[in-house]
DNA sequence: TTGAAAGCGCTAACAC
DNA sequence: GTGTTAGCGCTTTCAA
C-alpha cells in the first residue's frame, strides 16, 4: 500500500497538520520543518489521496461531459477543447457517451455518475431540457446546443436559426432554386435539427420559394452513411435538387459520396453546404462549404458557467443563455 | 446541502447499516424495512457520496485514458469503444490529452491525476515506455501500441511490422515499384512509426527492391495537413512514386488531397494505402484502402488487463503482451 | 509555528 | 435481520 499523510508525519517527526500545510502551501511553515517534511514525502513517495480530500472539501474537481458520440468528429473536437480548457482550471473531465439513448442520458444523471461530478456539460439528444435539469438536480448543468431551456439551466449554443438561414441564402445566391435539406430528426427531442430546418425554410420563403416537404429528408442519425442514404433518396424520388444543405458536415460528406457515385458534379450539378466545420471537410474532395461555430468559445464559456455555479455561494444566479458566434466558410462544394 | 446516509436512516427509523445494505443490495433486508428505506431515499433525494465510498474502498472506479489527441478520428473512435467497455464494467473513464507533449505525459502520471485513478491506459507519444511505467508506479498501466516495454507493463497492440509489410506487399502486388512511405517520426520516442517503417522496408526487400531514403517522408504530426505536405514534397523532389503507404489514414487522406490538386489520378497514377480504418476513409473520394486494426478488441483487452491488476491481490503477475488482429481492407484507392 | 482531535459519508467487523 | 461503531486520509478548529 502507498503511504499516507500520517506516515509522512511520523517519519518527519511532526504532526499531520504540519504535513498538510506543507503539501498545500497554506499556512506558514518554518523552513527547516518544511525541508524535513519534503524529504519524508520524497522518501516515502507520498501522494495525497484525492478521495479523502474530496470527502473533506465536498467537491471532487471532476466535471462531466456527456455527448452522444465521441466517435463523431464534431464532438471529438469539442471534447478535446473542453478537456484543454478544464485542465487550465485544474479540473478533470470524465466523458460519457449517451449514444443517442434516452435511458443512457437519464442513467447518467441519476446513477452513480451524478455524485462524483461537481457539474455536468451535456449535449442533449434524446431528452428535452426539462427532463435533464430535473433529473440532474441539484447538480449544476450546462446545456450545449439545446432549444429553449427557459431559464432552467445555463445554455451555450450558436444561433442555429440564423446560421441555417445564412447557409441556405448562400446557396440561393448562387442561383439555385431547388434547395434540399438533409438532417431532420423528428424522432429526437433536442430541437437542434428543428431550429436549423426553421432557418432553412425562412431563407427559402424570403427568396420567394415555397418550402416543399419532399425537399426535406429526415435521418436516423448524423453519420456519413445517413447522409449518403438521404442523398440517394432525394435523387430517387425525383426531387432533382440543384443544392443541398446538410445539417452536419458528416451528413454532407455522405451526400458528396452519393453524388459522386451517381455521376453528379459538385458544385456544377449540386452545390452542398454542411454544418460544424470538421477537419475532414477541409480536405475532402471537393472541399466542403460549411457553417463554422466557434468551438473554442463554446468550450470556454461552458466551463466558465460551470465554474460560476460550483464556486458561487449563491444558488439563485439566473440561468445564462449564451450565443456563440459562427461564420460561413465558403469552399469548393459551392464553387468557393 | 444534499442528504447523507445518516439522514435517510433517521427518516426511515433504522440504522445507517441497514440503509447501506439496501443501497448496495448486500445483506438480506426485511421487505418491509427495505420499502421504508427506499421511500426515505426517494423523499430526501439521497444519492451516495462517491468520495466517501472511494475512501473506504481504496478504489475510485475511475480509469484514466491518455491519448495524444481526442481530435484525431482514430483516437476518438478508440476512446468511444473504451468508454463503452468501461461502462460495462461500471468504471468511469477520465480522458486526458497529452497533445504529443512529453511534459504533459509526465505530469499526467506524477500529478494529482495519478491518485484519482485506479489504473491508466496510455497511448504514449513523446515518452518511452520505461519512463512512463517508472513515473506511474505503483499505478497499473496498460500501454497501447508501444514498442518493447520488455515486461514493464501490460501492452496491447497490432503487429505493426506485419501489418505494414502486408500493406506494402499489396501495393507491390499491383505492379507498383516506386512505393513511397509517409509518416516517419524520428523525433518521437514511441516507436510505432519505426515499426511500420521496418515492415515497409522488409516488404520492399522481399520484392527485390532496395529501399531508398528519398521515398521515406517524415512528418511532424499525423494530421491531414501533414500528409498533404509530405505528398507535395514527394512529388516536388522528383521521387515520382507510383504508390504511397501512409502510416495513418489521416495522412493518407491528406496525400489524396494533394494528388487531386496536382492532377494525379488515384489509383491509376498513384495507389494509396492508409492505416487505422477511420470512417472518413470509407466515404472519401476515392474510398481508402487501409489496414484495419480490431479496435473493439484493443478496447476490451486493455480494460481486461487493468481489471486483472486492480482486482488482483497478487502484485507479481507478469506483464501481458497482447497482439490484436488486423486486416487489410482493399478499397478504391488501390483499385479495389 | 505546531499539535491534538473532530468529522466529512460510507462500509463492514462485531454484537445482539 | 438490524444496531453500534471503528476507521478510510484528509483538512481545519481550537489550544498551546
Helix-strand sequence of chain A: HHHHEHEHHEHEEHEHEHEHEHEHEE
User: Could you name the ranges of chain A where pLDDT drops below 50 across 5 or more consecutive residues?
Assistant: none
Largest sheet of chain A: 6 strands, parallel
Helix coverage percent of chain A:
40-55%
The radius of gyration computed from the alpha-carbon positions of chain A, rounded to a whole number of angstroms, is 25 Å
Summarize model confidence as the mean pLDDT of chain A: 90
Tell me, briefly, the overall form of chain A: elongated
What is the multimeric organization of the chains shown?
A: homodimer
Count of runs of 4 or more consecutive helical residues of chain A: 14
Number of strands of chain A: 12
| Portion in strands of chain A | 15-25%
Keywords (chains A, B): DNA-binding, Transcription, Transcription regulation
Organism (chains A, B): Actinospica acidiphila
Domain HTH lacI-type (chains A, B): 3-57
InterPro entries (chains A, B): HTH_LacI (IPR000843), LacI/GalR-like_sensor (IPR046335), Lambda_DNA-bd_dom_sf (IPR010982), Peripla_BP_I (IPR028082)
Amino acid at each position: 500500500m502507498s503511504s499516507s499523510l500520517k506516515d509522512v508525519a511520523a517519519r518527519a517527526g511532526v504532526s499531520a497538520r504540519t504535513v498538510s500545510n506543507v503539501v498545500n502551501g497554506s499556512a506558514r511553515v518554518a523552513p527547516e520543518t518544511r525541508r524535513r517534511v519534503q524529504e519524508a514525502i520524497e522518501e516515502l513517495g507520498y501522494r495525497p489521496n484525492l478521495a479523502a480530500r474530496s470527502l473533506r472539501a465536498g467537491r471532487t474537481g471532476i466535471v462531466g461531459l456527456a455527448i452522444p458520440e465521441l466517435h463523431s468528429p464534431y464532438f471529438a473536437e469539442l471534447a478535446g477543447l473542453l478537456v484543454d480548457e478544464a485542465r487550465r482550471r485544474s479540473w478533470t473531465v470524465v466523458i460519457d457517451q449517451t449514444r443517442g439513448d434516452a435511458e443512457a442520458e437519464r442513467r447518467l444523471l441519476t446513477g452513480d455518475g451524478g455524485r462524483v461530478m461537481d457539474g455536468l456539460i451535456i449535449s442533449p439528444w434524446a431528452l428535452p431540457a426539462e427532463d435533464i435539469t430535473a433529473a440532474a438536480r441539484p447538480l449544476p448543468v450546462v446545456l450545449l446546443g439545446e432549444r429553449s431551456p427557459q431559464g432552467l439551466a445555463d445554455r451555450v449554443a450558436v444561433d442555429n436559426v440564423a446560421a441555417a438561414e445564412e447557409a441556405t441564402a448562400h446557396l440561393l445566391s448562387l442561383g439555385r432554386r431547388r434547395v434540399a435539406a438533409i438532417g431532420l430528426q423528428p424522432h429526437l427531442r433536442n430541437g437542434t435539427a428543428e431550429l436549423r430546418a426553421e432557418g432553412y425554410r425562412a431563407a427559402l420563403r424570403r427568396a420567394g420559394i415555397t418550402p416543399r416537404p419532399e425537399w426535406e429528408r429526415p435521418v436516423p442519425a448524423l453519420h456519413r452513411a445517413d447522409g449518403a442514404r438521404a442523398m440517394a433518396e432525394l435523387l430517387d424520388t425525383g426531387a432533382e435538387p440543384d443544392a443541398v444543405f446538410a445539417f452536419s458536415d458528416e451528413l454532407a460528406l455522405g451526400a458528396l459520396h452519393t453524388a459522386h457515385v451517381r455521376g453528379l458534379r459538385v458544385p456544377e450539378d449540386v452545390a452542398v453546404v454542411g454544418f460544424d466545420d470538421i477537419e475532414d471537410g477541409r480536405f475532402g474532395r471537393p472541399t466542403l462549404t460549411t457553417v463554422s461555430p466557434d468551438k473554442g468559445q463554446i468550450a470556454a464559456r461552458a466551463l466558465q458557467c460551470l465554474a460560476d455555479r460550483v464556486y458561487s455561494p449563491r444558488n439563485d444566479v439566473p440561468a445564462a443563455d449564451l450565443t456563440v458566434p459562427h461564420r460561413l466558410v465558403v469552399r469548393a462544394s459551392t464553387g468557393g
